[in-house]
Amino acid sequence: MTVDYRSRRDADVTDVDITDFFSRRFPGLLNTAAPCIEPWLACNTPSNLTIDCDGASWHLSARDGQIQVAREAGTTGLHVKLSAAEFSGLVNDLYTPMTFFVGGSLSILRGQMGDFLDWWLLLRAVIDQRPIHTPGETEFRDRFGEPLDLCRAFNPGDSREDMRHFLETAGFLHIGGLFSEREMAAISADIDRYQDTYYEGDGSSWWATTGNGARRLVRLQRFDQVSAATRDLLADPRFTMLGQISGDGHTHKGLEGNAIEALIKPLDVVQGISDLPWHKDCSLGRHSYDCCSITAGISVTGASADSGQLRVIAGSHRALMWPALISKPELYGLPVVDLPTRTGDVTLHLSCTHHMAQAPTARERRVMYTSFRLPSVNVESNTESRARINQVREAAYRNVSQ
Questions:
Q1: Which among 84, 217, 257, 302 is least surrounded, fewest beta carbons within 10 Å?
Q2: Vertex 229, ends 227 and 231: CA angle to 5°?
Q3: Burial tier of 206 (Cβ tally within 10 Å: 0-12, 13-18, 19+)
């Protein structure tokens, strides 16, 4: 098994004209897409879809398990307007509907966001020849064929092969007691010590408003640049070995321009991004170029249901499903797993594993997040799509914070 799901390279990206795509390429792809779409269409009825792009209108409908395409504007169902660059990016898997939604450029003339996400599933299934997830198709077995205990917390000395199989199968991993309480206390002290060096608008921090009107620092980016204890942790073999668990060559690259960040999760946040709802880290695009990277969460303080714990949908990394905005995860037939942690524990989750953070209700939580990435296969990097996604993230933060 592997968690390297990449099937595209940036150097292969070409502009996609909507008329050429739907009149020439799409019909050919449909001829072999039946196994990828028919099981989902058997239990789902998407609305009709009209796409306006670059002066052309195309209408898609799904009847009797088949997708019909016509060059016309439909009068019912979902009606979206995309720029030529947005349509091309959607086909190339550089963007998703969430990119447009979060970035504020989404233009739905008729219909709902959920309709767009349903058609995104169908388009991705046809273009990538990847089956849409239907409930009941995912099993969880250990490497000996026995039922997998999804609530298991591994010890640092446990079998690396068992850890790898668990990560590949479930999409996440919990390692207990990797770091000591003393080490985490030193990092927590640095969070206290260096909070005053961050300020709103510095480009290195996120802020939120609590119910009493206070502005709180919630994310300290590039924290290794101020915290010696954090720099020591990043060089520690216990940390660097986390990237080796997958067996796919992951190395510590950190986040975009940000080796590691410290998060404070306050009580009663009423404005600003602090605790995120269900999403995949690839929800804004580039799944087929970058996944799976591995996000590591280092518990500076413990976490439980009332103090900001992480939750995951087991097996969702293997499933073509909505990338975000999931309100009822149980409908997918995949287990929802809580990940309570103690001080010094580490959680890993793959970039296309659905996850969310519960809002603290009893006490604050402190945690650090960073990322391990696959070895590069790109001759050149599509900096335009990466920059767009980064801008969308920043725009989302600003919009929620205002």
A1: 257
A2: 75
A3: buried
What pTM was estimated for this model as a whole?
A: 0.93
184-231 pLDDT per residue, tens: 999 999 999 999 999 999 999 999 999 999 999 999 999 999 999 999
CB atoms within 10 A of CB 131: 17
283 Cβ neighbours under 8 A, 6+ residues apart: 96, 98, 323, 324
How is residue 215 written in tokens? Answer: 């502005």
Q: Are 110 and 78 in contact (CB under 8 A)?
A: yes
Instruction: Compute the distance between CA of residue 141 and CA of residue 216 in angstroms, rounded to an integer.
Output: 43
| SS (HEC) of 206-235 | EEEEECCCCEEEEEECCHHHCCHHHHHHHH
Report cis status (omega within 30 of 0) of the bond before 151: no
